[in-house]
Amino acid sequence: MTTTTTDTESTRSAVSPKAVLRPGDRIFSGTALGAGIVILVTLAAVAVFLVVQAIPAFAPDTSNNQILEGQSFITWVWPFVFGTLWSSLIALVIAAPIAVGIALFISHYAPRRLAGVLGYIIDLLAAVPSVVFGLWGALTFAPMLVPFYKWLNTNLGWIPIFGGTPSGTGKTILTASLVLAVMILPIITAICREIFLQTPKLHEEAALALGATRWEMVRMAVLPFARSGIVSGAMLGLGRALGETMAVTLVLSPLGIVTFNLLNPENPTTIPAIIALRFPEAHDEGVNTLIAAGLILFIVTFAVNFVARWIVSRRAEFSGAN
């Protein structure tokens, strides 16, 4: 038995010799490996920098800290964490259904030429700088929303989030969330569009052959296949909204409050916005405090993107071929 096994292995080695890597293959594999290592080292360096620089912000005595002004770091940063999560969540709830609808229209309903034009516009929208969105939101979009906010307050004021006194300028947490929704719309749309286009054609054709309408085919074949891809795209868009700075800074005032009201002139702001607004005047422990806030944002954003990648890796593959 041992002799037979050895002979078989020798025969396989003779038939299938080990491939010899050419210089170009070695260069390419080495470059790819080096790029991956650089990314990991950079991420680790950023994490170490944030942790080391954030330690002074957790000191028991904060009386000399011009940012904390005697209060603890957790007490100071909590309203900004709330504002970051609250505005990003509202933006995600608004943008995700619209993005899925646009992606479905591009992939399964629009004529080929129109689909190409719409896809190009969506990709172009993702390239617009965030400061442009912020200026548009503060100078044009916010005043346009004032009559709508008054209507919401008059007719739906019995709902707590629409109660209180509506802002006369339109610069509210809802306006900031709408601007964020426009900004993350291209990301979610692009990911959903690619996932929808990967749906096995055999499944689509089988549904249509059984008498399903176009929408029934999408509901039975496309959406189940793309469910996890939609979730991952939405979470990647959420990660983008969590880290947005200029658009929110130009729309919201830097108030450290916690409120769920969407229309009041006093609104919670986000961690990126407060860092951008307070950093020019910060010094000594104040700088460490803002870096500590950045560490909190880094952890939240990293967690969101990690969960998104985990969902992508666990995406269930349908049987069949495209």
Automatic annotation (TrEMBL):
UniProt xrefs under CDD domains: TM_PBP2 (cd06261)
Gene3D superfamilies, per database record: MetI-like
Domain of life: Bacteria
Residues annotated as transmembrane: 32-56, 76-105, 117-139, 173-192, 245-263, 290-312
InterPro entries, per the entry: MetI-like, MetI-like_sf, Phosphate_PstC, Phosphate_Transport_Permease
Membrane found in the keyword field: yes
Record-annotated ABC transmembrane type-1 domain positions: 81-308
Membrane topology designation: Multi-pass membrane protein
Membrane listed as a keyword: yes
Pfam families: BPD_transp_1
PROSITE patterns: ABC_TM1
Compartments (UniProt record): Cell membrane
Keywords of the record: Cell membrane, Membrane, Phosphate transport, Transmembrane, Transmembrane helix, Transport
Signal sequence bounds: none
NCBIfam families tied to this protein: phosphate_pstC
Function, as annotated: Part of the binding-protein-dependent transport system for phosphate; probably responsible for the translocation of the substrate across the membrane.
Family: Belongs to the binding-protein-dependent transport system permease family. CysTW subfamily.
UniProt name for this protein: Phosphate transport system permease protein
Organism: Microbacterium profundi
